[in-house]
Every structure is written in C-alpha cells, then in structure tokens.
Design brief:
The chain has two domains: 64 residues, no CATH class; 203 residues, Glucose Permease (Domain IIA) (Distorted Sandwich). It is of the alpha+beta class. It contains eight helices and 17 strands. Strands 12-7-8-9-14-5-2-16 form an eight-stranded antiparallel beta sheet, with no helix packed on it. A four-stranded antiparallel beta sheet has the order 6-13-10-11, with no helix packed on it. Strands 1-17-15 form a three-stranded antiparallel beta sheet, with no helix packed on it. Helix content is 21%, strand content 31%.
C-alpha cells in the first residue's frame, strides 16, 4: 500500500507541477502498466514511441550497439558499441558504475547521508536491518542519478566479488530533484537492492540500485531473478560472483539511482562534486595513501 509522507516544501512553480504529475498518481499501477507497454514487441510501435520520446528529451542513440529496436524496453536497456565507455585501468581508482549526474556526495558522518538540501537519511535505514552499516561509518558515498535518456546498464567499479544481495520492496517515488527536496527519506522508502561486494583486497563496499516511478525492475546477472514490484521483500539472495572492473553487473528497466558506498580510505576523484556529469568507466573515487587516511 502506498502512503503519502509529510511533504516538507511548499508546492510552487514548475518543480511543483513536475512533482504532482509524477507522484500524485497511482505510482505502482502506472509503473506496472509502463513495464507491460514497453515490452510489447512491435518495431513500428517502438519507432513511434522512440520518436515521441526524442521530441521531448535529448535521447542520443549514436553509441548504441543496435540501430533498430523491436520494443521500447529494448531501447531502454540498450547495450553500447564496443569501446564506447573506456575504463580507467588504474587499480587505485574506483570508476563510476553508470552514466549519471552526481546529486549528492561526501563523507558519511554520524551515519548520515545527504539526500538534498535540508534532507538527510541514515545509512542503516537505507541498507536495512540485515546489512551491517558499521564498516562504512566515516566512509564516502556518491549518489548517482540516471535520467530517462541515459544508458541504463551498470558495471563493476573495481575488481572484486559480489557476495550477497538484499532486495527490499517499497514505494516508487520519482527520484528527480523536485521529489528529493519534498519527500523525506525517499531512497529509504523506495524499492531497492543492496549489493554487498568486496574489492580484490577484501575491502567491503556497497552499491544500492534504487527503483523509481515507471522504473521498478532491477536485473542482476549474478541473481537469476527479476527484482521488481511483484517480488515481495525483503529477500536475501546469497551470491559468489567474481567480477573485473567494467564488467556489466545488471541494468534498470528504465533509469533511476545508484548509491555507491565505500569505507574510509577513499576520497572523491577530481571533478566529482554536486551536479557533475559522469560516464561509466570514468574515475569516481580514489584510494587515499595510508598516511593521509590516518590523518583524516
């Protein structure tokens, strides 16, 4: 059942209109209908839908592996041409798992992360009761928002292994800026998967793909289960899936948010700040030398 939390900002202007249109609708129902519609196999319908989509947004398919699509879903989840996203090879660099805009980033202080201006949420609330948050206290996080037109697959930011997936059912609030400044604890309310991972040296880290309105299906190669609204949660899915930096981990059925969380010992890479645009494979975080880390 959907619940409407207290809205913290007055609804005015274009942001208010966007917020009302995308949130004060039967979000779960519309998300299911969109999922059904997008999977209709019809090249003609796909071409018409993509043409309409391009009319209202800057959709660029020049780096897509395929030039034609049999469904809107195939366009949403498109693969890229080989070499379209060079991967930074330096092992001390943690790369972006996806194409995105940085909507929040910084150090995790007192277990709090910033959602938007005047809004914070707790790491333990985001990760849920079965995932330990202690290893990430004092660590660094980056919140990456994938817009509708972006490449929607996500990749390993470093060499390592996926150890466990916790899927949590939830709401599907829009994750755009108008919603982030109005809905407290939005990421903790929405459907999400917590990917517990470790780097090749054993250092733990977490990626949290968060679903949103019209975007409530998450697919992982390591778990042969489609994580979506019809799949009750929380669910614990053990994994032992090694990966190399740049390997594809999964995809959203549309676009949404990934929150990358690392323990102390890393810092934001050059150019990573609020509002920055980043592509998969570009530097996101950088290992800090041991002496610098101990002084931090």
């Amino acid at each position: 059942m959907q619940t409407t939390p207290r809205i913290s900002h007055a609804l005015t202007g274009a942001g208010a209109f966007n917020f009302v249109v995308t949130n004060f609708i039967p979000r779960v129902l519309f998300t299911r209908l969109m999922g059904t519609f997008s999977k209709i196999e019809s090249p003609i319908l796909a071409r018409l839908s993509i043409a309409l989509w391009r009319r209202f947004s800057p959709l660029d398919l020049s780096d897509a592996k395929a030039s034609r699509f049999t469904s809107l879903h195939a366009c949403f989840t498109r693969e890229l041409k080989p070499g379209a996203r060079p991967i930074e090879s330096d092992p001390s660099v943690i790369t972006s798992p996806c194409d995105a805009h940085v909507v929040a980033c910084g150090q995790i202080s007192d277990g709090l992360l910033i959602q938007a201006k005047q809004h914070v949420y707790t790491l333990s609330d985001l990760l849920g009761p079965t995932v330990q948050s202690d290893p990430y206290q004092g660590g660094t996080y980056v919140t990456l928002r994938l817009t509708a037109t972006m490449y929607h697959r996500f990749h390993a930011p470093t060499d390592g292994e996926l150890e466990h997936v916790t899927y949590m059912a939830g709401d599907v609030w829009n994750v755009n800026p108008p919603a982030l400044v109005r809905v407290p604890r939005l990421y903790c309310q929405n459907e999400r998967a917590v990917l517990q991972m470790k780097r090749s040296d054993g250092t733990p880290f977490v990626l949290v793909p968060v679903a949103a309105v019209l975007v409530a299906s998450i697919r992982l190669h390591a778990a042969n289960v489609l994580l979506h609204l019809r799949y009750p949660g929380p669910n614990e899915i053990p994994c032992r899936s090694p990966f190399s930096k740049g390997d594809e981990l999964g995809w959203f059925e549309h676009g949404s948010t990934i929150i990358a969380i690392f323990p102390a010992g890393v810092a934001l890479a050059d150019g990573i700040k609020l509002g920055a645009a980043v592509r998969m494979g570009q530097p996101l975080l950088q290992d800090v030398p041991a002496r610098e880390s101990s002084r931090a």
